[in-house]
Amino acid sequence: MPSGLKDVVAIAAAPTYVLALKRDGTVTSWGANSNFVSAGWTSVVAVAAGPSHQLALRQDATVIQSGAGAPPPPEGLTAVAAIACGSQHSLALNQDGTVIAWGQTSVPAGLSNVVAIAAAVNNSLALKSDGTVVAWGSDFLLLQVPQALDSVMAISISETHALALRTDGTVIRWGRNLTSGQDQTAPPYIKDVIAIAAGPTESLAARAPLRFAKFEVVDHPTMHFRTFTGRDYTVEFSTDLGSASWTPLPGGRVTGTGQLATVLDDTQTTGGYRFYRFWEER
After folding, report:
1. CA separation (Å) from 67 to 35, 40, 43, 157, 242?
2. How far apart are the first and last CA of the chain?
3. What's the pLDDT score for residue 206?
4. 8 A C-beta contact, residue 33 and residue 26
5. What is the pLDDT of residues 29-88, one digit of tens each?
6. CB 65 within 8 A of CB 78
7. Which of 143, 166, 198, 260 lies at a CB distance of 3.0 to 4.6 Å from 156, suitable for a disulfide?
8. Burial classification of residue 125, based on how many CB atoms lie within 10 Å of its CB (0-12 exposed, 13-18 middle, 19 or more buried)
9. CA 136, 166, 128: angle at the middle one, nearest 5?
């Protein structure tokens, strides 16, 4: 990793190199054959890395490509929201929910209302706004999306398996295992997950039982936080952090739905301070 690298907001990794997107919209790379980032890679908001080619999504919703192994992006990509790289193909998610592909793949007919995409080697995934997943490509086992899979909020795919993160914080896995057999299992202890990543022989999950989304003060303090389906949460307040004394907020008990929860403190009076915490009941 380059010495002094900081202000990184996103990364993308391929088998032999890494891309790091910095806060100023520039991209740093390191590893084998990583000298492809040119002066034109500015105002970047997202990056994707394939084995031999790279994509960058710019602030103006256009796409830059470098490297080899895939044909250049088609003309007219001017409203792109997300990008993904396979080995010899690339994907672009348009702002209208449609998907554009180039290289050795084609998008399933009628695919629409897509909110996220993922690609690896010769396979691709699309997450639709209704929480379902569509798969296409050449690896039969990666096409076997588990039946009744729904309520998905994030997807990831590698050359061996795919992952889906559901709104209840659980992870669904499908594809092949280390002996190349079919595998649709995930460890039962994986829960409270907020992010996932699939690698060639491993899966990663970031866990966070409590998740803050937004805090605002208008007439009364209002808390917004993401919940997991079926979990119970309690919001408490304290006027003195040093006292370790917390009081349940009236109306502050929430049952999770997988969406943002909103809790209003309408008991707060003018003047003074209140501190708030959110915790999941076990």
Report:
1. 10, 14, 19, 21, 56
2. 41
3. 83
4. no
5. 898 866 666 667 899 999 999 998 999 999 999 999 998 878 899 999 999 999 999 999
6. no
7. 198
8. buried
9. 45
What the block records as the tokens of 173 is 């896995």
82/277 Cα distance (integer angstroms):
34
Please name every residue paired with 102 in a beta bridge, in sequence order, or none if there are none: 90
- Of 147-156, 169-178, 270-279, the range with the lowest mean pLDDT is 270-279
Q: How far apart are CA 75 and CA 13, in angstroms?
A: 26
Please tell me the distance from the alpha carbon of residue 242 to that of residue 98, in angstroms, as a whole number.
53
Distance (Å, rounded) from C-alpha 29 to C-alpha 174?
Answer: 31
Tokens representing 31 are: 């590893």
Could you tell me the residue range of the domain that residue 141 belongs to? 8-207
CATH number at 155 reads: 2.130.10.30
Q: 192, 207, 222 — which closes off a domain?
A: 207
Highest-scoring range by mean pLDDT, 51-65, 174-188, 215-229:
51-65
pLDDT in tens, 28-43: 989 886 666 666 789 9
| Positive/negative CA dihedral, 262, 265, 271, 272 | negative
